[in-house]
Amino acid sequence: MEKHKLLLIDDEDSIITSYSALLAPYFIVDTCSTVEEGILQLSLKDYSIAVIDMQFPSDKEGGLSIVKHIAAMNMPTKAIVLTAYGTVKNCKKNYEVGVYDYIEKGKDDTPQTLLEKALEASGNSHKGGSSNES
Hints:
This protein is of the alpha/beta class. The protein has one domain (4-120): Rossmann fold, CATH 3.40.50. It is built from five helices and five strands. It has helices at residues 13-23, 35-44, 63-72, 88-96, 111-122, and strands spanning 4-9, 27-32, 49-53, 78-83, 99-104. A five-stranded parallel β-sheet has the order 2-1-3-4-5, with helices on both faces. α2 runs parallel beside α3. Mean pLDDT is 81; it is low at 126-134.
């Protein structure tokens, strides 16, 4: 089975490093650390999934700018948002602009949760352990 392409966009090196290592066995993972780089990467390649941090110091709207770009360009990319601000208001706003799912940092941002949500978004499932099926 061909791996889906996943774009991980976060300005924290530790998140990029740990989540890339976790996702690499299941996805072709590209990473970037700014909103501008994320939008450029999405324009250059077709991604099944984008895992997007919501807060970026260089952009007022942060990851929401990327989600809006995905929607405006009518891309099939499913956006999974990483946020430390999981209020009902923010969640509603995210879903209104096309977020597939979100992960609240500090609450449910475990590596297992991210992996499960990414696999679900790609149409695959993961029930623990690793699979060597081709």
